[in-house]
């Protein structure tokens, strides 16, 4: 069997949905990142926390991950599940689909097992520090949409990616030559905070996925657009016509079901009673920059303010007396909006 055939078999056995190959190539990632940082489109706070923004040259050149690398391998998994929302959503928030389960850890583990498998076959292999969207594009798994997401022909944009570099020589996969319909701008128009400032260009400061996870208070402009979101935002994917026929994940990534009162449609009043243990069990897999019950409450206060539910007014009034300035400020906002 060829190395390609063996890796495809291994991927299937592990339950990985996508695998593709490319010869080693440098990308323009570093220039793009530097230009976005200099324009203020990637805020300092996220640069400090994110390796790919600190050393973008490393991420633009796969040979920096492994000297002598011959092939870039990209692995991907869909996280799309058809789960219907509760009939009565009035007291519920919503969590972005990528957080419905611990999809990231699941794929990272499979990527690491694939590295071990290559090594056991006598090849050099390392996890690649390469932008996952670039890796998906180079290896023929996806093309890039105006919403900046990597779009796969079968699973749409609802997939996560990681990559590997190896000295094994593998036949490159055919790349996808595709772009968005010329006139389509649905993602840009539907974005609640108009964060997609140009096709393919995200102003991270305005993206709700960033705002909901950053420290400190929500900026004023984002509070009403946040709607009932408690974490994550899927709008630029939900409206994309390329996702209308997207196939759901063939199999759920991790077996563990999360507490249905907390994920994916958290009961807003429950968010204020959640314990550290429940937080760890249900929210620790989310990329919260500071995972804590405090951040869940902060986000739930904004969702409560946007809910129109008078029942949540007493919670807003209670937190308005909080000694925590951020909670106090959000509670005051929620109270005024609900009164
Ligand atoms: C930081 C980060 C964020 C930040 C900033 C996102 C951003 N766009 O920069 C925040 C917190 C806002 C975020 C949000 C989201 N993220 Co995020 N995020 C990352 C992270 C860690 C780095 C991203 C990065 O390098 N950005 C830098 C800029 C330069 O990259 P970019 O916008 O992707 O730009 C590329 C393309 O636009 C393209 N491009 C640029 N110009 C042009 C022009 C043309 C013509 C074309 C064709 C292409 C093109 O090239 C650029 C890269 O070289 C990666 C994971 C990782 N380890 O690298 C995940 C990642 C990008 N995120 C992911 C996800 C799922 C999301 C969300 C959907 C989560 C959610 N539901 O809320 C949103 C999507 C928002 C959006 N529309 O992009 C997935 C995306 C999977 C996919 N199918 O594309 C990734 C790849 C994680 C993973 N391992 O799979 N994320
Ligand atoms: S994730 Fe939400 S806020 Fe961010 S670009 Fe997409 S639609 Fe806009
Ligand atoms: S909504 Fe339209 S413009 Fe945006 S990514 Fe999808 S096809 Fe492209």
List keywords for this structure.
alpha+beta, 15 helices, binds iron/sulfur cluster, binds cobalamin, 2 domains
Please tell me about this protein's structure.
The strands form four sheets. This protein has a four-stranded antiparallel β-sheet, with helices on both faces. Strands 3-10 form a two-stranded parallel sheet. The mean pLDDT is 96. It folds into two domains: 3-80 and 102-166, no CATH class; 186-239 and 248-338, no CATH class. The chain is 36% helix and 12% strand. Strand 5 and strand 6 (150-151) form a beta hairpin. It has helices at residues 3-14, 29-38, 44-49, 51-54, 56-60, 103-120, 132-138, 186-190, 208-211, 220-223, 235-238, 276-283, 293-307, 313-319, 325-338; strands at 18-23, 71-78, 94-95, 125-127, 143-144, 150-151, 159-166, 196-198, 201-202, 229-231. By secondary structure, the chain is an alpha+beta fold. Residues 145-147, 180-181, 184-187, 239-242 line the site of one iron/sulfur cluster.
